[in-house]
Design goal:
This protein is 45% helix and 9% strand.
Length: 282
């Protein structure tokens, strides 16, 4: 293409990607890949910082946000990241224990920051054994509300209605939902589908610089007894059902996007083309 046409194409690109950040799901690692790529790939990255990290927006703020994204041309193309917005979130089964210790010991990303439960030395196993409220599933592993929407029922922990709504939204409203345990595959598929933003992301991740950016300090794996006790909770069962649903959907998408050869994953080439185009153009 002529240089002037390439410049015009980029300047007129109004693509917007919105990343739904679910806490403790490698979201920091992922967004830092976007920050590293934005200069080279020529797009903007914006963090949506809500008061007290509230995942629910007021109706008036929803209107303001939609107006901003629609009309803020100087920030297009743009990658927005924050809570409670589609299009490409990550979820994790490991969030429960990780978040418990994160509130007490923080992580290696901002080690000097004082956390809300700092000084509490009780292990996760001890908390579950004593029936403590700090390790209850509804406090530490709610991912369904982030996918359910702004209906009041979405925030009722253990709601079967919220689960089904979250499943519906995952399939119908999201471009891609990944799982933290398969983060590299998630990044690879995004690079293939959205190279305008994610060209070079897979190599960046594989280089190791961003693959494990943020680690919770002092995290101790729970015992089998602790896990068995948690699995008796109805909230855990419903949240786990949603995780399994998301994992199955991600694996389905991946199966139609990449192939494995000699232990390496490769993105499939374009498999469709156009023909019989009428009327004929001279």
């Amino acid at each position: 293409l002529d240089k002037s046409l390439r410049t015009t194409s980029i300047e007129n690109d109004d693509t917007v990607i919105i990343y739904n950040r679910v806490p403790k799901t490698a979201s920091t690692s992922f967004t830092n890949i976007a920050y590293d790529l934005c200069g080279k790939n020529r797009f903007h990255v914006l963090h949506i910082n809500t008061t007290k990290n509230n995942p629910v927006m007021s109706l008036q703020d929803q209107v303001r946000f939609v107006r901003n994204v629609t009309s803020w041309r100087e920030m297009k193309p743009g990658f927005y990241h924050g809570p409670s917005f589609p299009v490409i979130p990550l979820i994790s089964r490991l969030r429960l224990v990780s978040y418990y210790y994160f509130l007490r010991f923080g992580d290696d990303y901002r080690p000097g920051l004082r956390r809300r439960k700092q000084g509490d030395k009780k292990t996760f196993d001890e908390c579950v054994s004593s029936g403590g409220s700090d390790c209850a599933p509804e406090k530490l592993w709610l991912q369904i509300p982030f996918f359910c929407g702004h209906h009041s029922e979405c925030w009722n922990a253990g709601s079967r209605w919220a689960l089904e709504q979250a499943k519906y939204n995952l399939v119908n409203e999201y471009l891609l939902v990944g799982v933290t345990e398969e983060l590299e595959d998630f990044i690879m598929i995004l690079e293939a589908a959205l190279p305008r933003f994610f060209k070079g992301a897979t190599d960046l991740y594989r280089s190791g610089k961003k693959s494990h950016l943020r680690k919770t300090t002092e995290k101790k794996p729970p015992t089998k007894e602790t896990i068995a006790k948690l699995q008796q909770s109805n909230i855990w069962k419903i949240e786990n059902e949603f995780y399994e649903f998301a994992l199955e959907q991600f694996q389905f998408v991946r199966a139609h996007a990449v192939r494995e050869k000699d232990g390496e994953l490769f993105v499939l080439a374009q498999s469709f083309f156009y023909e019989k185009i009428y009327p004929k153009v001279n």
